[in-house]
Amino acid sequence: MKSIQELSAIISDELVSIEYPETPSLLYEPIDYIIDLGGKRMRPILVLMAYQLFDQNIEKAISPALAIELFHNFTLLHDDIMDNAPLRRGKKTVHEKWNSNVAILSGDTMLVQAYQLMTEVDDTIVKQVLTVFSKAAIKVCEGQQWDMDFETQSDVSITDYLKMIEYKTAVLLGAALQIGGITAGASKEEQKYLYTFGRDLGIAFQLKDDLLDAFGDAETFGKQVGGDIMSNKKTYMYLKALELADGTQRQDLKQYFSTNDASQLKVDSVKTIFSNLDIPRLATALIGEYHERAMGSLAAINSENKEPLLDFSALLMDRVS
Fold it and tell me: Rounded to the nearest 10 degrees, what angle do helices 126-150 and 100-118 cross at?
């Protein structure tokens, strides 16, 4: 049974070994570029770890694992354009290094390549794998659209937000695990538990990321603390605060989140309201609920090879702590 580190090395080597045509260079160079930027590779690793629950020979799972990673990077190219983001992993984004048209077309090519790789599974499971993959891909797009809608929508609910992060972030983790299970011959019930494990773990992770964006330590968090507040992101923190706030607090929150002010004073003022309303404790409790659900799904899977997934869960939840 291979460790997370060993699986990560396998994915990295396989990604590097993918050969692209030399021409047209403006189509393929950006794909090489974004893949070379690296990343955690957690989604393809999940495919391989799910496969390992049932079979130690992971060769059959390599192709769908690479497909998941190419799809994820396709979404990054397009998301960066929509967010007008200048940097990705400390380097220029593709649309900044080249232009938006190049980024769109290279991203489209990665999407097609992802589907090509996903079809390289055994003929008997192609339809099943593609159904799971396509359903997740559409949900990711829906989640991204909701995320953009929320920027101008005034009546976002906590239920809306949780559904958005489920679709935008968590469903691809669940699909990666389910596809790994399908490839290894897992039963329908085991596939269901794999999916819900990944989905609930993904929601817990995003909620913790939101919490630490406001209250984390800048050095360990790896991003600017208070960034969500500066950009008026309607996270669980903000929405729960609105729900519990008195008239003055609610008015102040809405005022802060209606301006383009990105000052430290704004961040500190909003965090004070969050703290006064006990939002960090409530967020931590909700994170715990989703994490417990995820662990319950993992426990229901009949396998003696769960240690890498338990380690992955711990690493994911501790990544930004």
Answer: 150
Stretch 125-135: mean pLDDT: 98
Q: Which residue has the tokens 């301006």?
A: 259
- What phi, psi does 182 have (nearest 5°)? -60, -45
279-299 and 264-276 helices, crossing angle to 10°: 70
d(Cα 297, Cα 254) in Å, to the nearest integer? 38
Residue-wise burial string across 111-145, b where 16 or more C-beta atoms lie within 10 A, e elsewhere: bebbeebbeebeeebeebbbebbeebbebbeebbe
Amino acid at 198: G
Could you write out the DSSP letters of every residue in 65-134? HHHHHHHHHHHHHHHHHHHT-SEETTEE-HHHHS-HHHHHHHHHHHHHHHHHHHTTS-GGGHHHHHHHHH
Q: Quote the CA–CA distance of 216 and 229 in Å, as a whole number.
A: 13
Contact 131, 175 (CB under 8 A): no
pLDDT at 147 over 70: yes
What is the chain's length?
Answer: 321
Beta carbons of 2 and 44 less than 8 angstroms apart:
no
- pLDDT tens digits, 185-234: 999 999 999 999 999 999 999 999 999 999 987 666 556 689 899 999 99
Q: How far apart are CA 267 and CA 274, in angstroms?
A: 11
Residue 271 and residue 211: Cα distance in Å, rounded?
11
* Segment 261-309, tens digit of pLDDT: 999 999 999 999 999 999 999 999 999 999 999 999 999 999 999 998 9
State the Cα–Cα distance between residues 292 and 280, nearest whole angstrom.
Answer: 18
pLDDT at 38: 87
Do strands 91-92 and 87-88 pair parallel, antiparallel, or not at all (unpaired)?
A: antiparallel
